[in-house]
């Protein structure tokens, strides 16, 4: 009985000291990708990348409209078309679908590559800003929001990091 009481006392002491230790730690949440991509410089770089890809986006949009028009024509005029005409239009639609799918995947990969370039280009600035904030606020632990079940927004420093990035000048 005394042994259990000593164990219980020891356990409660450890839990209390652990809670006190955790209370002394400065733990924050940071979405580093969002902090970088929401910065003014990243927005300018993203806009320039979008302008570079604008022609491809327009081409894909026009191709989709063309395919839709062919589908509509097939539905409305299909009964008066010969079988060979129907097959030709259906084959053209299938070819366009494949081309659209390929073009969309290519464009999506290009967007991801540009995003990665932006993140890499701004990484040194981000690291400097983060080190400054860690030092000033004496941060002990930084957690990513996607690894958390819940965090109070007062612990999220993402916006603050973005603001500091915007203040940085080369």
Structure description:
The protein is mainly α and 170 residues long. It has one domain (25-167): Protein Binding, DinI Protein, Chain A. It has 5 helices and 2 strands, in the order H-E-H-H-H-E-H. The protein has a two-stranded parallel sheet. It is elongated, with a radius of gyration of 29 Å. The termini are far apart.
SSE topology:
Elements: H1 2-24, E1 27-29, H2 32-37, H3 40-77, H4 83-137, E2 141-143, H5 158-167
Parallel strand pairs: 1-2
Helix pairs in contact: 3-4
Offer a concise description of the structure.
With 170 residues, this protein is mainly alpha-helical. The protein contains five helices and two strands.
Q: Can you identify the CATH class?
A: Alpha Beta
Distance between the termini: 69 Å
CATH topology tier name: Protein Binding, DinI Protein, Chain A
Helix content: over 70%
As laid out across the biggest beta sheet, the strand order is 1-2
Mean pLDDT: 87
Unreliable sequence segments: 3-8
Please state roughly what percent of the residues sit in beta strands, choosing from under 5%, 5-15%, 15-25%, 25-35%, 35-45% or over 45%.
Answer: under 5%
Largest sheet: 2 strands, parallel
Can you count the helices? 5
Order of helices and strands: HEHHHEH
User: What's the structural domain tally?
Assistant: 1
Please identify the structural class as seen in this structure.
mainly alpha
Coarse morphology? elongated
Number of strands: 2
Question: Radius of gyration, rounded?
Answer: 29 Å
| CATH architecture term | 2-Layer Sandwich
